Amino acid sequence: MTDQAAPPTTDRPVIALRGIGKVFPGVIANADVDFDLRAGEIHALLGENGAGKSTLMNILTGIYRPDSGQILMDGAAKTFASPVEAIAAGIGMVHQHFKLVRAFSVAENVHLGWKDTPRLASKSVLEARTRALAERYGLAVRPEARIDELSAGEQQRVEILRVLARQARVLILDEPTAVLTPAEARTLFTALRAFKAAGNSVIFISHKLDEVLEISDRVTVLRGGRKVVTEPTANCTTTKLAQLMVGREMVLGGLREAMKPRTEPGRVVLALQKVSATDDRGRAGLIDADLPVRAGEILGIAGVAGNGQRELSEILTGIRKPTSGKVLIEGVPVDNPSPDIFIEVGVGHIPEDRIKSGIAPALSISDNAVLRAYAEPPIAQGVLFKPGAADKLAQQIADDAEVTIPSLSTPMRNLSGGNQQRLVARREMRIAKLAIIAAYPSRGLDVGAISTLLHYLIDLRNSGVAVVLISEELSELFDVTDRIAVMFKGRVMGLYETKDADLETIGLLMGGQTKATSASEAA
Amino acid sequence: MAIRFVRTPIVSSQRALTARIIGFVLALAIGAIVLGIAGFDPLHLGTQIIVKSLGSRFGLEDLGLLYTPLLLTGLAVTVMAKMGLWNIGADGQFYLGAFVTTAIGLFIKGPEPFMLILCFFAGAAGGALWILVPTLARAYAKVDEIITTLLLNFVALLLVYYVATGPWRDRVSGTTASTGRVPYKMPEFFGSLHWGFVIALVAPILFGLALRYTRWGYEVRLSGSNPDAAHYAGIPVRRRMISIMLLSGAIAGVAGMLEVAGTVHRLQGGISNNYGYLGVMVAVLARGSPIGVIAGAFLMALILNAGIILQTQGLTTSAVLALTGLMMLFTAVADQFAHYRIVRTQAATS
Ligand SMILES: Nc1ncnc2c1ncn2[C@@H]1O[C@H](COP(=O)(O)OP(=O)(O)OP(=O)(O)O)[C@@H](O)[C@H]1O
Ligand SMILES: [Mg+2]
């Protein structure tokens, strides 16, 4: 391990959870969980989707009250009635879905609801304070920027700064790297190591096992709401962790073997010809993109998030209108693209940001599950909508997605993050007769669920459906795609047969370089 | 041990109801004390209110006549709230419904049942017309509907005052600010209570059913809950928004039509009796639920009726208004308090 220089972790826990239990109507989210967090350690919390990780942390930070059990801090029993009290005691959490005020500036968000915020402070004072804090904790943020303008990585740094500014000793991160680019993840890890070196502690929830092995000192695994084990990370491997999470031997891989060999390239079912589009702020998002999407193949879109992938996926599903260029379905140009046209021909879409555009969190699971099928029999009959039929389909989709749900009338937001993603993915695959556009479909899924998802995408491909897989994980792309295109600054940089492509070429293209330019730079 | 108040974001309906009942009782108690100090006998007044509004046939009729327009204006506001929009202009749409009905009554002759049906649809159209401009402005230019609908109330009021004191004024009895009698009357079934009451009572139920059991209802729920997701689902969100706003206006228009054809039988300057604004309060009481409108409007009708009875007992209008305001204030405060729970904890060791 590289952490020899870190101060020795003491055995006396900063935080000890004893016998924590929490039941929601119809679900046991936590049962009899013991958990110790030591000073100066990064403690990873693992478990399948719905295992109860977020719930346990919500209990620790006072969002939920435990039904049973005790929270000890520095040996003394504590109850936090709200996150405000938890942070006052030095425990801060950055959630799976950020909770920043989007219309406010970074400085305003950092100072919101903080007792140290100076009364009647001017904008410039708040910004100066934010700048000082950012410097102190080594987190690069722009104090005057509005939250809507920021990338996921920048927003997360604001969230972390908010917590650190309040002098937290314990930082809880719920799937922090799910929305980060690899470079942003590196920056985060550096900051976490510095935080830990100062004697503080981190609880780190993630589904990315190699990250867990890299950053954590100890690992605790939850399964079905119960604690399975706490182990020093040094004793763990990815296989062992995966096995502990699901409780049985897991067969991962076998993806290539599942792909039927292609005899000839499939027909082009969707195509972009010189398509440009603006992003939400009216700037060029997609520039002169040419892209043929073929039946019976998986087309990977590699690239650092935020380089036009959102615009590309929205153009391919009719959500966004191009400013110039042509979109073709089965060779026929679409005059005035709109989502219903693409739904009609059978284009499924797993959107990049499910909370924002893929679901209505306040509506029931049933309403959300039938979003693609509500207008057709058996759910629709003439003008009627039949809730009974909707429930039936919703249950079927949930079963296929391997999501256990307490009741179909529960609001969608009560599902765990990964389970929401599973439902959306199944819902979209169901209607994908012609094509499916999957943007970061494995975000938030556990290892087992990712493998299942990729196998399903391969099944669709084998049956002749066109699959567009937008991802940042090069290994995932190299595992399952037939061809790979790279996006950089809104442009499609090249289209390669996966078997002829190599990691280096793709990696360089993602940074906007070709082999030739990088060679000349090196010289 | 320390005691703290902690805010919870989501409140169970049972909790909300308990809080409201407590708030209501407190408001009553404070009202009673103030009345006592002012030299009235609160117990006597209280009994009067109950006996006169619920204990007699006439009381019930009056209550029903107040209840009818409140059901509809409350529903109108709730319908639009389903899309995350506020209709502050139900008063104006009410006036338009009343105006159109009066126009038909004064100038078109025909068999009564047919004319009533005509009035019904014309009243609805009038209300819808009155919200048309705010609707288009909202749908195509994102102009805030709160301001536009509110402003049109004053225009409608002026229009009605103009015809009621000018061209259509009552030349027979000479009542000020009133038109002549509208000959078509909604049939009555309980004293002076007319079938409009039944229409008003059924409307929220129909709307609730439509939300749950029609495709349109599903689309409206999705569009109101997350417009981006609705767009993603291929739903024409703008068209749904337009249909909802026009429906809201139409419902308020029908309230105005029923008020003329069922209760007042002529167009008067103050015919809306602020029902449109009270509809906003009913919608707030109903917390966005169409069925809640039935309860919310009933409470509001009781309060209004109590106000009228108190006036007959010698209280001034402003005292009655103050009491009504007190009730509303306490309901709002109770709604907020329902979000808080008390926790006892060990005192922090810091
Ligand atoms: N407010 C709630 N109401 C009802 N059920 C809930 C609520 N919050 C969580 N649950 C349920 O509790 C279980 C545990 O959820 P939790 O969010 O803790 O899972 P998780 O381990 O964080 O999963 P993921 O990896 O998918 O984020 C799930 O079955 C979830 O549906
Ligand atoms: Mg979670």
Automatic annotation (TrEMBL), chain A:
It comes from Kaistia dalseonensis. PANTHER family: CARBOHYDRATE TRANSPORT ATP-BINDING PROTEIN MG119-RELATED, GUANOSINE IMPORT ATP-BINDING PROTEIN NUPO. This is Simple sugar transport system ATP-binding protein. Residues 15-249, 270-514 form the ABC transporter domain. It comes from the Bacteria. InterPro entries: AAA+_ATPase, ABC_carbohydrate_import_ATPase, ABC_transporter-like_ATP-bd, ABC_transporter-like_CS, P-loop_NTPase. CDD domains: ABC_Carb_Monos_I, ABC_Carb_Monos_II. Belongs to the ABC transporter superfamily. Keywords: ATP-binding, Nucleotide-binding, Sugar transport, Transport. One of its GO terms (molecular function) is ATP binding. Pfam families: ABC_tran.
TrEMBL record, chain B:
This is Simple sugar transport system permease protein. It holds the Pfam family BPD_transp_2. The keyword Plastid does not apply. InterPro entries: ABC_transp_permease. Keywords: Cell membrane, Membrane, Sugar transport, Transmembrane, Transmembrane helix, Transport. It comes from the Bacteria. It is a multi-pass membrane protein. It is found in: Cell membrane. The chain crosses the membrane at residues 21-45, 65-85, 92-108, 114-133, 145-164, 193-211, 244-264, 276-303, 315-334. Its main location: membrane.
